[in-house]
Amino acid sequence: MTSQVSSPAEQADEAVVGEQRKPVGTKDVRRLDRVIIRFAGDSGDGMQLTGDRFTSETASFGNDLSTLPNFPAEIRAPAGTLPGVSSFQLHFADHDILTPGDAPNVLVAMNPAALKANIADVPRGAEIIVNTDEFTKRAMQKVGYAVSPLEDGSLDGYSVHPVPLTTMTVEALKEFDLSRKEAERSKNMFALGLLSWMYNRPTEGTEKFLRTKFAKKPEIAAANLAAFRAGWNFGETTEDFAVSYEVAPAAQTFPTGTYRNISGNLALSYGLIAASRQADLPLYLGSYPITPASDILHELSRHKNFGVRTFQAEDEIAGIGAALGAAFGGSLAVTTTSGPGVALKSETIGLAVSLELPLLVIDIQRGGPSTGLPTKTEQADLLQAMYGRNGEAPVPVVAPMTPADCFDAAMEAARIALAYRTPVLLLSDGYLANGSEPWRVPEVDELPDLRVQFAQGPNHTLDDGSEVFWPYKRDPQTLARPWAVPGTPGLEHRIGGIEKQDGSGNISYDPANHDFMVRTRQAKIDGIDVPDLDVDDPADGARGGADTLVLGWGSTYGPITAAVRRLRAAGVPIAQAHLRHLNPFPRNLGEVLGRYDKVVIPEMNLGQLATLIRARYLVDAHSYNQVNGMPFKAEQLATALKEAIDG
Length: 647
Fold this sequence. Notes:
single chain, alpha/beta, 20 helices, about 20% strand
C-alpha cells in the first residue's frame, strides 16, 4: 500500500514515452514516464501469476496502473497452440492512466505460439524477450512457422533479446532435488526476476509471496526463489541487457490516502461486505460458479467473520432461489452470475419484482450468446437486464466504470435495493472483473448509512377499527412496501408469484387492480433517486464549445476518456458523459442530449444503449460498436470519434 498526494494529473493516457538517462555502474538507467508490458505463453506457463506478481510490486512502488489478463476458456488448453496462449498486459506510469494500453512496449514470449499470437500488436522498435529453448522445429510447425522467426529476418524491426529461459532455469536449480520437468515450471519466475531487474521493481513482496504460497513445500518455495533471483542476476550481469528502466511513482496522481491494487471482482466483494455492515444486515450469497463471476463466491466465502454466508448451489436457479429466500428472511441477499446464468435466473428475478424484496443480481458480462466466449469481455446483456423477464417487471440497472469503481457500484446497488425494496441488476464485465488498478481504501465514516427499519407491528386500520398489517401498504416517498421479517408476531402475510391486491397483499385477479399494481411497480423504479449526469465539456456545455458528446456506460469509461484526452490534446473539442444508472436514467439526461448536435455511443455490443437512447429521447445517436471479446483501444476510439465529428 502507498500514500499519494495531490489531484489527478491532466495528462494524456497514452502519452508518448519520455525518457532520461543516468549511468549507474556499468549500465545505464533510463527514466520513462510509462511502460506497457505483455507476458505471453501457454496457459500452463504461469503468465497470469507472473503478471499478477509484477503488478503487485508495481502497485507497492506507487505507480498508477491498469491491467488486462487474457486467457483461454479451457482449464488446460492444448500446449503450444495459438488457442492455448495466455497473456497478461500491464500498463504502469508516473501519471494518471486509464487503460491497459493499446500496444506493448515489451513482449515476453515463452514459446512460438505466444510470439505468433501477439506479434501483430507489438509496434516496431519494441523489445521482445524470447525463450529460445521452446523454438524447436516441432513447436514452430505447430503454429505455422516454416522457418524460425528468430532467423528469417521477420523480427529485424524489433529489439529482440533471445534468452534460453528454460535452460537457464534448470541450471539455476540443479542443486535442488527436482526433476527437469519440475525445474522447468519455475521459468516464469526466472522471467519475472529478469523483468523486475529491467524495471527496478521491488522484490520483497514476491519473495514473501513465494514463501507463503509454498509454505508446505519448502523445496518448491526455495526453487522458485532461486529462479527469481537468477533472473534478476542474469539481467544485472548479461551484456544483452545494457540498460534498465525506471518509472517513478505517480506522486501527483492520487489524493492522500492508503492505496492497494484491486481487481473488479475483489472490489465488488468488498463493496458487498461494506454494504452489509453499513446496513447492519447479514450478507447472504447464493451462487453457482461461472466464469468470470466465480471469484466473488471464492472471496466472500473467506469472510465469515463479517457475518457473510455463502451457498454454492447445484445450479443457477437454486442459487437465486436461496438468495431470494434469504431476502425474505431479512438478509442483504446477493446472487452472482454471468449472462447465461441471468437467463436461468429470470423467472426468480420476476418473482422478486412481484414480492418487492431487496435482492442484488450481479452479472459479470462475457461474450455470448449461449456459452459464447467465457473468458472474453462484452457488454451485451444490457437489454436482457432491462427486459429479460416475462410481463412488466422493471428492475433498476447499475454499471461500474472501472475495477475500483466496482466497490462504489456495489454500495449504490445495495442502497437502491434496500431503500426501494426491489431486485437490482449490477452489470460488470470480464474486463473489469479481472483487470486491476490502484484503489484508495475509504474511511468508514465516508460510507453511506444503509440501515433500514423492519416492520414492527400493524400499519393499517380497517373500517371496523381493527388494526392489521398490510404487506403492500407503501411509503409515500419511495413507494416501497414494508419489509416484514417472518416470525415477527402479528406480521403474518402471504407471498407468491400471483398478483397481489394493493395494500392487503391478498391474491387478486381483478383487472383494474392488476393495471394499478403494474403501473405502481413501474412508478417505483422510475422514481428512484439517482444523481444527475455529470458532463465533462471543455466549454461547460455552452453553445460555441463542443458540438459532439460521447456517451458511454460501464467499462468503456477508460478507453473513451483516453480517446477524449487525445482529441483535446490535438485541439479537437469534444464533450464526454458516462452513465452509471441505466434504469432509471438520470433525470437530466434528455436535457444533456439536447445540448449537442451529435451524440456518439461506443459499446462492446451492437448498439444496445444506443437503441434505448433513440427510443426514449428520439435522438439520432451514432453507434460505434465492437464485439471481438476485447476492450476498445484508445487510438481506435479517438479515430472513430474524430471521423464522427468531421462527418
